[in-house]
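Ticket reopened. Same input as before:
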Amino acid sequence: MAGTRARVRIGGDLGFRLLTGGFAVLVIVIVIGIGFELWRQSQLSIQKFGFGFWATKTWDPVSGDFGALPFIWGTLYSSILALLISTPVALGIAIFLSELAPNWLKQPLGFLTELLAAIPSIVYGLWGIFVLVPWVRTLQLHMPALLKATPFFSGPPLGVGMLSAALILAVMVIPFSSSVAREVLKAVPVAQREAAYALGATQWEAIRAALFYARTGIIGAVMLGFGRALGETMAVTMLIGNNPQISWSLNAPQYTMAAVLANEFTEASDELYLHALIEIGLVLFIITLFVNVLSRLLIWSMARSMSPKARRVVAAPASEAA
Amino acid sequence: MSRKSFAVLATAVAMATSVVAQQNVHINGAGATFPYPIYSKWFAEYAKLHENAQINYQSIGSGGGIRQVTAQTVFFGATDGPMTPEQLLAAPGKILHFPTVLGAVVPVYNVEGVSELKFTGPVLADIFLGKITKWNDPAIAKLNPGVNLPVADITVAHRSDGSGTTYIFVDYLAKLSSEWKEKVGIATSVNWPVGVGGKGNEGVAGLVKQTPGAIGYVELIYALQNKISYGTVQNSAGEFVRASVESVTACAAAAVKSMPKDFRVSITNAPGTGVYPISSFTWLLVYENPKDKVQAKVFVDFMKWALTDGQKFAPELGYAPLPAEIVKLEMAAISQIKL
Amino acid sequence: MTRDAQRRLLSLAVTSFCGLSVVIALVPLAMILFFVLSQGLGSLNLDFFTHMPLPVGEAGGGMANAIAGSLIVTGLGALFAIPVGLLAGIYAAEFAGSRLASAVRFAADTLNGVPSIVIGVFVYGLVVLPIKQFTAVAGGVALGIMMVPIIARTTEELLLLVPGGLREGALALGATRGRAIFTVVLPAAFPGIVTGIMLALARIAGETAPLLFTAFNNRFWSTRLDQPIATLTVQVYTYAISPYEDWHRQAWAGALVLVSLVLSCSVLARVATRRLERMQVGR
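Engineering reply: fixed in the latest deploy. New output:
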């Protein structure tokens, strides 16, 4: 910390700091603005339901009874599942492309994985409906009775449901996590790896050293993917079944916050209904904030284990270390 | 950057041609998705007759249409469900409703070996309430003697997004099932007791097509285009009627006698023979005293054309034209708009 | 098994898994691309690129206005997002210890999770409602806001990984902070930053919801920034949810064009980056 402040005092280019700082403030202002608007435009609902909104299971536009719990469940369940499926694959791709692949293969393969990000949400949804859902339904039909007895696979084999949604989310998230992770791994100084090899490491152990070095960047990559999953609307709503129920079963149709907001927003015409929908947006916003706080804490606790010399809030440039 | 220079070039071309464009009257409208195909046909046909009239309509949903016309970001709105008294009060000026065409909602299903099924309102309500859960339930069998109904679970498919189609369907169910009216109610989006939600008519059609044993509801044109079996529904005269251009128009004709002055009416389950009971108008929303008189003149002329010459384009696109008596009432009502 | 052999086996297992991951990712990609191609290729013809949308049943309709519109709106979005994202990311990296940097990082991650429809509604209230007019600019702002967090976070992460020696060397030579960053550090992280920008573009290229309430859509040819403008995504969406086979085919063609546009943009960016890399001494 002292080094940073000294550098500012000594090399300080005030204009540079003001310029970049100004835009940094702009980003913060935008986010605060969105949060504020969400809060302001959901007042009717906040006043009527208070904190009970978070715990209520009903969503009834006719009687004016609204609650966010099933949607919170659906969002978190689908996004965490997607993350569990996609992170190992994304990291695997990142490692393969930055460490293991022969040079001539790196560019085209990397390009292909990024292509996954270029596919519009609606195309994922349509492909999901025509290809993924029937496949999942077949899987569900042929599931051994032992698995069907568990709470994770109970319920009729509809095809649409949590599993399909989580799978498509995982595929959509992979390019984001893997591209950023790959760039992060590429930027790890060669010296790190060479030091590991010099000590007799196997390939995996050298990779592990690189992963450790870049760990905060990797977490950043994973968070990027998670944010994508939390906010994804179109593909999810086409595959998740859109039933506001809370269930551990991967077969069960469920509902997410982004999906219900997108589905009902254009048609909602009475004020309370509209405000309740916007409050769902607010709930999602707050949950995203909360998830970020958790990941910050995770990164901070990781940074704590670094040497004082290398300690910065994020990954340390290590020209001195190694 | 190639993208940027393309934009610059395109803008330059647009500016050069804008001199001619300035004489065009450009009108924006927004609203229901259901009438989008016929409206886009109408605007194109009308433009062939009046080259300077550029009417741009986008389907963002009935609710969206009501909101945008209230906020005056568009000149006209379109909705599958009439505005409520609260919504009318919230508008800065008086908004008039004009029915344009008719649509029908049909029950679609995917039952092996069965092509035609008969339904009544109460039976449909019980299925969607989750009270009837199997296809070979006695209530369904009674209506369909001689049909080999399988011992299979019924999977209910409904709309996940708010929609006028839902409104029409639940409006009908509520009229025939007091339990539905009490428990679920009528709105563009309801708390469905059972089932999976599909996005859009396409979503429901897709779900039904892909899920054996499924039942859903879609606009007639979607059942026709997707080639899904749809059933007949019993009307108030006791007949089992199949949705068609004739039976839907008959439903509106039957409702003429009780047509209110502002055309805001539900015609589901209208009395009479040959009537398909799950039918509804779709409306255009226009201010009684629009601010832009130039746009108003063009649009009023368009509406007169649409209600007369335009109706002939309806059947081939799957819509039912308005009965003559209603057109007469509307042409008179159009004169209310202050030009 | 000896410990050595154990370690080697583990290494083999992990590296095989990594190779397998690439295959796992490529399988759905191939299937989806095949799907889009098979559905859309047949409907791609000259009309598609030169005509305006026509009502159903009339042959020869196209999405020329939507293609132009998408380019314009995406361009506007990039125009807004690239400077904002880059500079915010630079601040977060260069002044990493400060509270503002933590706040920016936090804000960017939060913004990333906001559903696109919420951003559309936000921009609607901010830009459309006050002037009671749907505009292409509003669409650009909405898309830009969505791009900012991806660009900012990627820029930040990559700048942080540039070896401190590079930075300090430039400063030691007497460069001001700004000069050091813009002429030395940023170019070093450039390829990664370009990846971030491409990801951001890909992210917004397929978005519909934010445009519905901002740029609206337009049946007619329009490149004016203060009027509603057609976009591929909204047009594809409108056609996809219709009941007509012909419109479905056009929707697929539109999706194919969309994917191709993002793809070619990505390729161009990669090629340009590699040229720049080769021009830099010592790389």
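The two ends of chain C are 43 Å apart (CA to CA). The interface with chain B takes residues 53-58, 68, 71-72, 74-75, 78-79, 128-129, 132-134, 212-213, 216-225, 227-228, 234, 238, 240-245, 265, 268 of chain C (CB under 8 Å). Please confirm and we'll close it.
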